[in-house]
Amino acid sequence: LRARHATGKDLGVVGSIDPDSDASEARIFLIDDNEDQASRLMTSIGDGNHQVIHEIDPEVALGRARLGDFDLIIINLSIEAMDPLRLCSSIRSFEETRLTPILGVVRVGDTRKLVRALDIGVNDYVTRPVDRNELSARIATQLRRKRYVDQLRSSFQVSLEMAVTDQLTGLYNRRYLASHLSAMFDRAFWTGRPLAVMVIDIDHFKSVNDVHGHDTGDRVLQEFADRITNSIRGIDLACRYGGEEFLIAMPDTDLAFASVVAERLRQEVASSKFKLNSGRDELGVTVSIGLASTEDSSEEDTAQKLIKRADEALYEAKNGGRNRVIK
Ligand code: GH3
Ligand code: MG
Ligand code: MG
Ligand code: MG
């Protein structure tokens, strides 16, 4: 399954989650204000293909941790230049490092500090003197966990986007519109700033399918969706409302301005042909557009009624001969 977001971003293939995927070549950030201990640790970590970056100054480390995109942060819990627990809790609180595993290095017997560190969100620890094999094993475990969380987050993100996206065109789907239009409508009502709705239907689209085939029809829908995306603002919400019917909700837009946008889109579609089979053929397409806005809303108006009024205007545009905008 592939999906395109309204911005044209490719969402990629929805991957399966593999917690055992290769755990080598991680970026590890070591925060330790003791040069000798740090270099001993670096040698101990040194066997994997990991890239280890050491920072001796904890204050500087705070900034670097946020920017470094690290897979694991190892902190010497005996640092003196800063309270190590404050360092850990800061790293936990930053958005960029909220989920980055932290491995503490503690002195044997420093149980009180260890308990507090674990409480703050340090994921695991090793005691000094550090056993090389134990360190490797604990690093591997944290890296595996990190990869698992990353994969889980990105596939969740993809699922979320797919649930609100129309697969063919990459525009939002009707479900997304349903969940957002009421809020846009309410906001227009409370702010007193108009919300305009544009319903667009491709003219004689059935004959595009009949003459050129369903695949060509699909490509026309995709190109038309791209033209819509290029002609609206970031705050506008464009969705595929039905088969060859699209809806654009435009906040802070009165009927007069919506007409200008609609007329520009109608003309753009009518005047520049759609390219088929990589440019060898071209197809002329026209659209009919119906408009409505909250300017002429009464008290009992709703988002659904607003769409209905735009639909009625569209119906008029069709009856009037198509390739036109009616408000
Ligand atoms: P009108 O000017 O009155 O809108 O005529 P029309 O032919 O566009 O309208 P009609 O509702 O009769 O036909 C719409 C067609 O759109 C029929 C349907 O097969 C086609 N269609 C709907 N969804 C898709 C799709 O996802 N892909 C393709 N290729 N065609 C689709
Ligand atoms: Mg129709
Ligand atoms: Mg149509
Ligand atoms: Mg239709």
Span of the ends, CA to CA: 39 Å
Whole-number average pLDDT? 90
**What count of helical segments does DSSP give?**
10
Number-wise, the strands total 12
Question: Which overall shape is indicated by the principal axes computed on the Cα atoms?
Answer: elongated
- Could you tell me which ligands this complex binds, including any ions or cofactors? 3'-deoxy-guanosine-5'-triphosphate, magnesium ion
Q: Strand order, main sheet: write it out.
A: 2-1-3-4-5
Give the helices and strands as they follow along the chain.
EHEHEHEHEHHEHHEEHEEEHE
**What Rg, in angstroms, do the CA atoms define?**
29 Å
Helix content: 40-55%
Tell me the major beta sheet. 5 strands, parallel
Spans where pLDDT lies below 50 across 5 or more residues: 1-15
Secondary-structure map:
Elements: E1 27-31, H1 35-45, E2 51-55, H2 58-67, E3 72-76, H3 84-93, E4 102-107, H4 111-120, E5 124-128, H5 132-164, H6 174-191, E6 196-202, H7 205-212, H8 214-231, E7 237-242, E8 245-250, H9 255-271, E9 274-276, E10 281-283, E11 287-293, H10 303-319, E12 325-326
Parallel strand pairs: 1-2, 1-3, 3-4, 4-5, 11-12
Antiparallel strand pairs: 6-8, 6-11, 7-8, 9-10
Helix pairs in contact: 3-4, 7-8, 8-9
Description:
Its EC number is 2.7.7.65. This is diguanylate cyclase. It catalyses: 2 GTP = 3',3'-c-di-GMP + 2 diphosphate. The chain has 327 residues and is of the alpha/beta class. 46% of the residues lie in helices and 18% in strands. Strands 2-1-3-4-5 form a five-stranded parallel beta sheet, with helices on both faces. Helix 8 packs across helix 9. The chain is elongated. The protein binds 3'-deoxy-guanosine-5'-triphosphate (GH3) and magnesium ion (MG) (3 copies). One magnesium ion (MG) is lined by residues 201, 244-245.
